[in-house]
Amino acid sequence: MPVDPHIAAVLTMLEEGGMPPMYEGTPEAGRAQYLALTHGARTPEQLAPVDSTEDLTVPGAHGDLKARIYRPEGEGPFPTVAFFHGGGWVIGDLDTHDNMARHVCRGSRSVVVAIDYRLAPEHPFPAAAEDAVATARWVAQHLDELGGDSRFAVAGDSAGGNLAAVVAQQMKADGIALAGQFLIYPAVDAAGDYPSRVENARGYFLEQPTMDWFYGHYAGAWDDAKDPRLSPLHAADLSGLAPAVIVTAEYDPLRDEGEAYGEALRAAGVPVQVQRYDGLIHGFFDMGIVSPAAQAAIDESCARFSELLHR
């Protein structure tokens, strides 16, 4: 089906706005641009309501990191979800993904702990993966204090979906049982060759040159593109992982690898739901304000994740 008309209008606006491509600038410029497009474009009444938020610090792999707790309305205790933001491991922070974390909190009726992991190129691979694992281990040890019960899950979008998948694999190795993993258009195969990377290489917000720019800053000096901490699809054993909800979008370069990961999990005996949203693009999970179709997809996918956690 064609691109959702509301999102098509946004794409046209961005193209006509004359903003230089992110891959032509510095990481600092990219971070400022992304913050302006997300946090800077929202008004308070557009935020998904939650009961409360709280900023704190949590121990990362090499020092404390900023984090933000979102608590849902209603009577707990609730499941707890460690959430990792997207942005190609180079851009993004707690504020760019504030509304997304709110939607996961509200839609899945979970305490969400969003993590501000270290970014590349200042901290290249495997820094983000190491921070994700370290913070997830900390969250798992403090569920009661955070307001949750024994149910613990992970979630993330794009590069954050990559980190959530990496954490899920490490939690299995650690013997920590996860209730689920919510992978929103995840990047799971750094060196993969997929039709969606060609079909959707240009014109749909996330473009192939930007992906190359992200990977170059994060893992350009790493010589093993199939390292499972970078490409979780290539883990030697996917059996026994937490059940997953995987979300993809029709006009997304990452569409096919996300779906391939779902197929690989299913082949390994992992319960998995893969949902492709036709007409939508990479990043739609933060476009509900402008697109009713995106909001419907956000609501439906969060409800699927909620069913997984609350069964």
Brief characterization of the structure:
The chain has 311 residues and is of the alpha/beta class. It contains 10 helices and 8 strands. It is globular and about 50 Å long.
Structure description:
- The protein is globular.
- The mean pLDDT is 96.
- It contains 10 helices and 8 strands.
- Strands 1-2-4-3-5-6-7-8 form an 8-stranded mixed β-sheet, sandwiched between helices.
- With 311 residues, the chain is an alpha/beta fold.
- The two termini are 34 Å apart.
Overall helicity: 25-40%
Q: State the total count of DSSP E strands.
A: 8
Distance between the termini: 34 Å
SS strand fraction: 15-25%
- Helix-strand pattern: HHEEEHEHHEHEHHEHEH
The assigned structural class equals alpha/beta
Note the main sheet: 8 strands, mixed
Number of helices: 10
Give the averaged pLDDT, no decimals.
96
Helices and strands in order:
Layout: H1 5-16, H2 27-37, E1 52-60, E2 63-71, E3 78-84, H3 98-108, E4 111-115, H4 127-141, H5 143-146, E5 148-157, H6 159-174, E6 180-184, H7 195-199, H8 208-219, E7 244-251, H9 255-267, E8 272-281, H10 292-309
Parallel strand pairs: 3-4, 3-5, 5-6, 6-7, 7-8
Antiparallel strand pairs: 1-2, 2-4
Salient structural properties:
311 residues, alpha/beta, 10 helices, 8 strands, 20% strand
